[in-house]
Amino acid sequence: MQFSTAFTIALAALASMVVADSESFGMITIHSGTNLQYAHVYADNGNLLVGNSGDFFTATVTDAGKLKLSDDKYAIAQDDGTFKEGSETDGSTGFAVSKGRLTYKNSDGFFAYPIDASSYTLSIKSSDSATGIAVSARSQTDGSTIPDFTPSGSSADASVVTSSVAVTKSVTSTTSVAVAKSATVAAISQITDGQVQATVSQQTENGAAKNLAGLSAFAAAAAMLL
């Protein structure tokens, strides 16, 4: 059986639509006024840490909702809330990108536990010694936040995100952050800043509004056919 070139291209396009990962991004932590502002996520002895040492990691969220790291390993959430690296089979699902931030199980709240003066353990659970942070998903080309990404193979919904930190946004016009991936360095010249203030719960639900807008459009189209 022979397939035409057009049919082959159509199949490839369909496959790319069905299975797709997010854009590759750098993981920059945000908490104004601390040394966690513009730190990055890296690995040490298989554990995911936050700080300004270690190799800078980039990542993608896979179509299955797993966080694939630039060393071809995957993030695994532990029972105590911390993360380690492992195989794709063991990688935890539930990751997504919403409003420029990495989320896990519909929450963009992460925490950093101090190890020493310059390094922290990344966690999804809080304690008295932990500092709340956001993980900004930054493009490797221009430093901007990447588009929202909701894995088709995950229950995560980028439109419904619970935030464990209240953030006051401002624009720092003169800040430049060097982001390295192998030999590639992306300069972030303008970054939307975030000041962690307190622990609150915020949820955005626009599903009902979308459904109402869809029904209105459908009714308008039907009226034109009458």
Automatic annotation (TrEMBL):
The keyword Signal applies. Keywords: Signal. It is found in: Cell envelope. One of its GO terms (molecular function) is structural constituent of cell wall. InterPro entries: Yeast_PIR_rpt. The keyword Signal applies. Residues 1-20 form the signal peptide. Pfam families: PIR (PF00399). This is Cell wall protein CWP1. The gene is NCAS0A07750.
